[in-house]
Amino acid sequence: MYFADRLDAAEQLAKALHAYRGRHPLILAIPRGAVPMGWLLAERLEGELDVVLVRKLRAPGSPEFAVGSIDESGWVYLAPHARSAGADAGYLAEEKRHQLALLKERRARYTPGRAAADPAGRVVIVVDDGLATGSTMMAALHAVRARGPETLVCAVPVASRDSLELVRPFADQLVCLHAPEDFFAVGQFYRTFGQVEDEEAIRLLGTAAHTTRAVR
């Protein structure tokens, strides 16, 4: 199963999530790749869009390799391979400080002048463009769960089977359109998988916030 691009994947996810239309779900996208997807889902499901901010903890000397993840509250997930990848206590303490500072900066940039949407008592759908290790999604779900949603949904177009089992306990419902045996990377299942720039994410979030205020 392949997707033309992120918006095609979001259209298909919207169909799988149609039962939540009319319940004003809160769609929380993991930046930056999932923001266009979250924008479309909020449109299709008549919901509200915001971001849930988490950062991966990078392996020493290998910034693309994750040894865990951290959310805005400082909660940390460490992968089983963290120690073997060279991430000792001193390194992790510094990496956590660095990533928390980036999360604070990103929140100010993405949602300037307004507080993050409150998930308490609401249907919340956390969306990403795919799951490779699952550590980022797990941190995102943990962050949202701590704020008391009525129903917490994890929604992704594609994922590795191992990552699905990792995140499953953290959500009330897990919606994944494709979990292939031959998973190597999220991008292999998209014909177009370009980088989403900050400017586009900020524009979409601003448009969605304006629409939500107008509806209210």
Q: Architecture of the largest domain, CATH level 2?
A: 3-Layer(aba) Sandwich
Strand order of the largest sheet: 2-1-6-7-8
Compute the gyration radius: what is it? 17 Å
Instruction: Using the alpha-carbon principal axes, give the shape.
Output: globular
Mean pLDDT: 93
Strand content: 15-25%
Query: In this structure, how is the largest beta sheet organized?
Result: 5 strands, parallel
Low-pLDDT windows of residues: none
Would you count the extended β strands for me? 8
Number of domains: 2
The helix content, as a percent range, equals 25-40%
Label the structural class.
alpha/beta
Could you tell me how far the N terminus lies from the C terminus, measured between alpha carbons in angstroms? 39 Å
CATH class type of the largest domain: Alpha Beta
Order of helices and strands: HEHEEEEHEHEHEH
| Total number of helices | 6
Pfam family, one: Pribosyltran
Domain Phosphoribosyltransferase: 7-178
GO molecular function: glycosyltransferase activity
Keywords: Glycosyltransferase, Transferase
Features:
3-stranded antiparallel beta sheet, Ybab, Chain: A, PRTase-like, alpha/beta, 216 residues, glycosyltransferase activity, 5-stranded parallel beta sheet
Account of the protein in words:
Pfam families: Pribosyltran (PF00156). GO terms for molecular function: glycosyltransferase activity. This protein is of the alpha/beta class. It has 6 helices and 8 strands. Strand 7, helix 5 and strand 8 form a beta-alpha-beta unit. The protein is globular, with a radius of gyration of 17 Å. The model has no long low-confidence stretch (mean pLDDT 93).
